[in-house]
Amino acid sequence: MTSEPVTHKLMLHFPKCECEKPIIYHLVKDYDLVVNVFRAKVTPEEEGYLVLDVTGTEADIDRAMDYVKTFNVQVNFTGKGVIRDEEKCTHCGYCIPYCPTKALHLSDDASREVAYNEADCIECLACIRVCPYGACTSAF
Amino acid sequence: MKTYEQINDRIESGKAVVLTADEIMDYVDKKGLDAAAEEVDVVTTATFGPMCSSGCFLNFGHSKPKIRMSEAWIEDVLVYTGLAAVDVYLGATQLRHGDPANMYPPGEFRYGGGHVIEDLIAGKTLQLFALSYGTDCYPLRELRTYFTINDLNQATMVNPRNCYQNYNVAINCSDKTIYTYMGQLEPNCKNANYCSAGQLSPLLNDPLYDTIGVGTRVWLAGAQGHVYAEGTQHAGACERTEGGVPTGGAGTLALTGDMKQMQPEFVRGVSFRGYGISLAVGVGVPIPILNADILKRTCVRDRDILAPVTDYSHDYPQKTGKILKQVSYEQLRSGEIEIDGKKVNVGSLSSYYKALEIANLLADEIRRGDFQLTAPIAPLPKNVPMKSMIQRAKP
What we know:
The structure holds two protein chains of two kinds.
Chain A: E1 6-14, H1 23-29, E2 34-41, E3 48-56, H2 58-69, E4 74-76, E5 82-84, E6 104-106, E7 114-116, H3 126-130, E8 136-138
Chain B: H1 4-12, E1 18-20, H2 24-31, H3 33-39, E2 42-50, E3 55-59, E4 71-74, E5 77-79, E6 87-91, H4 113-121, E7 126-131, E8 142-147, E9 154-162, E10 169-171, E11 178-180, E12 183-185, E13 191-194, H5 202-205, E14 217-220, E15 223-230, E16 253-258, E17 267-272, E18 276-288, H6 292-298, E19 306-311, E20 325-328, H7 329-333, E21 336-339, E22 342-348, H8 352-367
Parallel strand pairs in B: 1-2, 10-19, 13-22
Antiparallel strand pairs in B: 2-18, 3-6, 3-9, 4-5, 4-7, 7-8, 9-16, 10-13, 11-12, 14-15, 14-18, 15-16, 17-18, 19-20, 21-22
C-alpha cells in the first residue's frame, strides 16, 4: 500500500443518535486526513449525512473508515447524492448555464445531447432547482 | 414542380426521398437547388418544448346512475365541466388543488395539468372526483373512481397555440433573480434563455406558409394529428428578413391529435419554479417540396434566423416593446451571447436533441409509406398583425 496521499469522495450516512458526536474532528486529528465537506445535514435527533472529500494515505483512510463504522455510520464510496434520471431528461440544455462545473454539458454540437459527468459534480443542487422535468434529484 | 398527389404516390410506393431540415442544407449545397428540388419529396421539421396553451378533451362514458358533472378533479387538478355531462377539458397550466403557488416564492409547482396529461398518456391509473347538483336525468351527486386512458371513449389533445414561428430570448436586467415562463433569470444579465428549434423548427422552414395551413397532417407526440386552425396570437404580419424569416414571434399553429396514439416520452409535464405548470409536446411537420422556392426556404440555417433579446424584468411585463438586440440562433447555440460588451451564458428551453429525434422518426414513417401528406384546406393568414388588449372605461 502506497503512502502517497489520495483523495476519495465519500458519502457518510449517520443513523439517529450518532449526529452529536464530533466524528469529523477525529478524522482530522487522529487520522491525519484533510477533509472538504460539500454537503451536510447534521440535525440532532434526526438522521444526517455528509458528502465530503478526504485526502490522506490509503492506510489512514482505511483506519479512519473503520473508526467511522464503529458509530454505525454507513460509508458510501460512490459519493454522489445528485442523481440524473436519463428517462426524464429531455436534453433541452436549460440546466447547463446553471451548472458551475460543467458536470452537465452538451456531449457534442451536432446531436446536442446533454451529458452528465458525475465526477465533476460538486452537488450545489442548482440542477435540482431548475430542471423543469424533475430529471435531477437528490439521494437525500 | 411536383403535386401533393405525385408526392403521396411516391410515399405509397416506398420511393419517397425524405430528408430532415437538419440535413437538407448540406444536401442542397452539394446537389444544387434545382436538381435537389427534382429529387427531394419531403423535408421533415420538428420541435419539442413547453407549450402552455395546451390541454385535452376527455369523455368518461356514463356512470350508473348517470351524473352531469358540474365540478370535477383528476388527481386533484381541476378540470372544466362546462360541457356535456361526462365531457371535461383539462388545461395544461392548471394547478393542483391546494398548491400554494407563489405564496412562499419561488413556488415549486411540482404537479398540475401538464403532469396529469403526461400520466394519462403513460397509461397510469388516475383518480376522478366529481360533484353535481343532480337533475332528473342525471341524478348522481358525487362520484369517485379510478381510470386509465383506455377506459375513456375519447382523449383528444388540443394545442390552441403551438409551434411558435420564432420567439424571444429572455434576459433579466434587474438586480434580483426573476422566475418566468422562460425559466429562472439571474440578475444583471447573467444568463439568457431561448425557446426554439431554430433551423429545425416547422414554421421557420416554411416562413411564408406555402405548405403548412389548416388541415395539414402533423406528427403530434407520435400520433397523426392535424392543424385545425391558425394558432392563437398568430400574427403573420411582422418584420421579416430578406428570406421571409420573421425576426420575432409571428405565426403559430393550433393542433389536435388522438392521445391514445401518443408516446409518453414526447408529452411531458413541466414545472417552472416560481412561475407554474406547462406541457412540453413534440411536434413534427412534413414540408412537401412542390418547387425549388419551397426547398430553398427549408435550407434556412441557424445563422440566418434572428431572435429578439428582451428584458423580462421590465420591458416584457410592462409591454414597452423594447428589444435589447437581435441575435442569431447560431450565436445562441454557441452557449454565449454578448450584451453591452458583457458575455452572457445561454440556455435553451426547447430540446434540439428531441426535435432531431422527431424529425427522423417522421422521416422514417414517410419513407415506410405510413404517413401521407395533406394539402391545406385553408392557408394561414399572412397579413394579420397581433392586437393588444384595449382596456376601456365602461362605455
